[in-house]
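Service request form, structural biology core

Requester: graduate student, group of Dr. S.
Request type: structure prediction, single chain
Budget code: on file
Notes: please return the result as C-alpha cells.

Sequence provided:
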Amino acid sequence: MLGAIVERGFGKAFDAAVEEGVFRPAGMARTSYYPVASGTARGYTHKRPGSSLDAPPDPDHWYPAWEAGTSGNPVANPMGGGFSTADDLVRFGEAFMQGRLLNHQTLKRVRNTSARRRTTAVETVTASKPA
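Core staff response, request fulfilled:
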C-alpha cells in the first residue's frame, strides 16, 4: 500500500521515486534496486534452486537466491530487494537525521514519537521488575 502511495505522490514507478526522493538527496551513489557494480553481493537461501515455494528449507546448505549475473530482482518494490553498501547506509542515516529527506517538522515528530516509545518501553520494563 505504501509503495502505491509513493508512486502516486511522485507520479512515477517506485524505484524511480526512491532514486529521486531518497538515494540522490542522501548521496547514495552505490545504492539501487539493481546491481550497481561488479562484485555486488548475492543473496543466499536454504531453498534449493528451482524448488517450489512450499518446499521445506535445507538447513545444512546455502544456495544462491538467483543466477550469477542477474539482479534477482525483476521488479523493484517496496518490500525490499535493494542493493547498497555500508557507506551508503551511513549516508542515509546522516541525511535522515540532518533533515535532508524529511522536512524538519516531520523529522521532529518522528524523533519525539521515537523518544516517547523508548521512554515507555523503559518505564514498562522497570515497572515489571520485582522489588
